[in-house]
Design goal:
194 residues, Glutaredoxin, 4-stranded mixed β-sheet
């Protein structure tokens, strides 16, 4: 029997995208629970300076992501608009029906990290919503709902309380694995029945 794995992610994270693609390539999506967090909020709680705000780390991160994508045969293009504010997208993930979440994740990640689209602007979000058959007005009202705002904050705070400090992070059998390069370790742990 395999334990399910919580996958803490944010669309802004290129490493979350790479992990997501690896999960799809391994045909293991069914054992992962995608857990939305706001990475910027998590960084603030953890007092972590993200690589986007450190020139040397940013240069390394770009090169590293390209290297990982190439090694794993994942289509990837560094987004010219990095970083964007992913707040509305992460709230959006929380309001849509469960049967549309997978497609929403796929389209948001691909638009940003494969197709180099600015997914913070309305016309591009509208295209994703149309492709997912999500009503734009429903979406716009939902992401402004105070309960949804509070829920994303709570999910991010809860992740922090579990010692999550970055994305992607995997939680399985009460063990944390941080980074796309720890995906296989998390999968191995999911098979470990104690």
């Amino acid at each position: 029997m395999t334990s399910s794995i919580d996958f803490y992610f944010d669309f802004i994270s290129p490493y979350s995208y790479l992990a997501h693609k690896k999960i799809i390539n391994l045909n293991l999506r069914n054992i992962f629970n995608y857990r939305a967090i706001l990475l910027g909020g998590l960084h603030n709680l953890a007092k972590v300076t993200p690589p986007a705000f450190n020139e040397r780390k940013m240069k390394n991160m770009k090169e590293d992501c390209i290297l990982i994508a190439k090694k794993n045969k994942i289509q990837f293009e560094w987004n010219e608009k990095f970083p964007i504010n992913s707040l509305y997208l992460m709230r959006g993930f929380l309001i849509i029906d469960n049967n549309k979440k997978s497609k929403f994740i796929d389209l948001c990640f691909d638009a940003y990290w494969k197709d180099n689209m600015d997914i913070s602007i309305d016309k591009n979000i509208q295209k994703i919503l149309t492709d997912c058959e999500i009503n734009h007005d429903f979406y716009e009202k939902g992401i402004q709902n105070q309960k949804i705002k509070d829920k994303l904050k709570a999910l991010t705070t809860d992740a922090f309380k579990l010692n999550v400090f970055g994305a992607p992070t995997f939680l399985v059998n009460n063990k944390l694995f941080w980074g796309q390069d720890r995906l296989e370790y998390a999968i191995d742990e999911s098979k470990n029945q104690t």
